[in-house]
Amino acid sequence: MPKRKNTFSSWRRGLAQRAVHAGWAWVQRTGSVTAEHPGRYRFGAMGTGTRLAFPLGTVFGEPWIHVGAHCIVGEQVTLTAGLMPDLDLGPDPILRIGDGVVLGRGSHVIADTTVTIGSDCYFGPYVYVTSTNHSYDDPHEPIGKQWPRMEPVEIGPGCWIGTGAVILPGARIGRNVVVAAGAVVRGAVPDHAVVAGAPARVVRRWTPADGWQPPLRTPPPVPIPEGVTPEQLRALSGLDEETAARLAELDEEAAAGLAELKPES
């Protein structure tokens, strides 16, 4: 026979669940790091509106980490400057993050030597950026015990770095570059390019003379017109396909009518 449902027990479980969720939301809000409430962290610089979500990943060398304004750093993101904590790295910052940068959940930025991330860069989750690579010159010494190689990394402004991408030491990525998910980038990448693969290679690029080559396969998205209110957007999202198609036809008919009325020059 089916067991009777314990209404009281179910009610208590639901209440406990809501309490746990509310408590965790409070912990996340309280544990996040901002310029106004840095907690135990003492970053070299942190701009207004920037927030590091709780729980944080590994963070050390904060005095040599400069983070710009209005940045979003997701949960479990690692930010390190130097090979290990408590080193004196000199007067200049090692890790520089520009304004408006978004670092996705679980990403790692390892700056044993200088790493620069330009403004308005967006990282998907689990991106790995490092200025250090292991050496294996000595075949008789364990690789982990050999002194690593270090090269600066620079990521230009306006880039999109896809999920799981790896940016290796010495990478110099131009402005407005798309790095595909899972790509492994080393060396120089020109401005306005799309790179993919391991190792990454340029698969599409824009130049003033030729535009995008190869040409884009889809038209650019139409931005939301200025002045459209959230209520209007919600109303549009509720339209069925037939109504939306009919509205599009009416727009085309109206445009055609206006074109006929326009006087010839």
UniProtKB/TrEMBL annotation:
It comes from the Bacteria. SUPFAM superfamilies: Trimeric LpxA-like enzymes. One of its GO terms (molecular function) is maltose O-acetyltransferase activity. CDD domains: LbH_MAT_like. One of its GO terms (cellular component) is cytosol. It comes from Streptomyces chartreusis NRRL 3882. InterPro entries: Hexapep, Hexapep_transf_CS, Hexapeptide_acetyltransf, Trimer_LpxA-like_sf. Its EC number is 2.3.1.79. Belongs to the transferase hexapeptide repeat family. This is Maltose O-acetyltransferase. Keywords: Acyltransferase, Repeat, Transferase. Coiled coil: none annotated. Residues 209-228 are annotated as: Disordered.
